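Let us begin with a simple case.
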Amino acid sequence: MGGLTGAAAPTEHSDARVDVAIVGAGIVGCLTARAVLDRLPGGSIAVVERDAVAGGASRRSAGLHFPRGASAPVRRMASFSESYYRTLKREDPQLPIHGLDTTVIAADARADRLAEHYLPGRLRRTDLPPPGPAGPVRLPGGTGAWQVTGGQYADVAALTQRLAARLRPVVRFLEGTRVRTVASRPGHVGLGLSSGATLTASKVLLAPGPWLADPAWRPWTAGLGLRVKKVVALHVERRPSPTEGAIVFEDEDAFLLPVHHRGHWLFSYTSAQWDVAPDAADHCVTPAELAEARSVLDRLAPELVPLCTTGRVFCDAYSPDRIPVVGPVDEFQNVIFAGAANGSGYRLAPAIAADAARLLCPTTVPRSHP
């Protein structure tokens, strides 16, 4: 995993041809580039990004990973991704991936479902309430706490940029470059770029995050049944101690995360605003969003409400069955879509990337060196 062998990346911005073009330089796009290089050593890859590396959803990601999935496919992806990140961190201990104690709070009546949704052997019932930003979190009657092994969080933007930096010697990155057109033909795909150049690739990966409605690929993504939902998280302005971990409120689909590298906590809750456009919002927390988030937090940890005056706002793509979508979208099966991770882009990115790489490079080429 993580081999970075390949042909030297060209530096010119004229028309070019590559084996694989990846549209989107978030965590999914960069991990897919790594996975393609592992399957196709010496192959030529270009990553096209409308902004900068990690400039979209990856920049705003909470970066929480916990070993959970409401369905068997998602549990498979969560298990694969957990192992992948563990290996990645072992190979480079300086990567901004940090182990994290995690506690799940849920109704006692849902204990059986809880055990089904988490990976086997990861839950242990505890009578101790977890420490939170303002003291131990209270356990209302009829609820219980479970300690979870395998949790971690990452500075997703910094991690993605580190991965891209390691890829640059062998992968061509076209930042600040928008894909205007995608033309699939037998054996190749042509990408018309905002720079005026044309990039031709044997296979193309679309990893656009919430930019599903971009005119260049909207005809293909429109039939996938995907929707874009707003994601709002409040910043709890209290510095976490080094020993404090994440608290997942299972029944509310919310969590408190100590963001140690930023010096505050994050409260993420489920927003019900659908069909938003990533470029339409100004990404500022509105009074209505503050009130909505505080109303949820008031039921869980009311002493934190006065500490929540700021936050982050963005959006993410969701699939109808809450399973990420990875598959061809054109008639020639040259264009692969990967995404709709349902708010779990970082958590499931390695598995999404591995599935996408298998479609982009169906046959693995043996390495020509030890």
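The second case is a distinct protein. As before, the sequence precedes its structure tokens.
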Amino acid sequence: MSEKSIGRPSPILLGIGVAYVAVLILLPMGMVFVEAFRRGPAEYLDIFAHSDTWSAIRLTLLVAAIAVPLNAVFGVAAAWAVTKFDFPGKGLLLTLIDLPFSVSPVISGLVWVLLFGASGWLAGPMTSANVQILFAVPGLVLATLFITLPFVARELIPLMQEQGADEEEAAITLGAGGFRTFFMVTLPNIKWALLYGVLLCNARAMGEFGAVSVVSGHIRGQTNTLPLHVEILYNEYNFVGAFATATILAGLAIVTLVIKSGLEWRFAGELSASRRH
């Protein structure tokens, strides 16, 4: 279905929109790069000579590489279950999927502290098994999983509801099994919305601060992701280093935005269908 325009926007409304975006997004983004290069390129590049910076980059990529695929699998499974089957508790499942949107990231981090902290509910079994969750990679992954859980599922559910189950029912009638039906029929129909959801999930995973800050312990060179490393440098009054590190996250955000815009332009029909509730 093609979208119809109702005419050109009012110059006043357009000006307000542009000014709003400029003040809240473009100006802060520009200041990050200005401050990063304030003392010249040599000072900017110096931050990348430190092992702590590369450790933060590697840890950020590692956490995202674990959390994003897991949430992609969960999102597909949840969307498949919700849209193709009727079962008790479907409404509760949808509510739980949306829960991370309404819970503060700091609170979501505290949940893992209550579970795995020194006096947490599961502290005993974890200690007996010699498994460390908090102040280690598993804690960062768990916090990131919680925060990014809804992104893939919420991109797929509206689209799969819009598509219905007619094609899957036809495939099963012709003798295809469940897995073959999924890979031959369902997955090709949702692939671009799935990619879009994974993109958003990855962007949030790499930029998350609140939840991972609670569970990380701020161990320099070991449990600091890029956002946490920026905070440490800033608190040490290493402003150039903090802003230089922040440009990595800003660059990732720009790349994400470019890919997102490309997906929206190339596959506008499917992506718009995935947003209709």
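The domain at 43-275 is CATH 1.10.3720.10 (MetI-like fold). The chain has a mean pLDDT of 84.
Keep these points in mind for the review questions at the end of the chapter.
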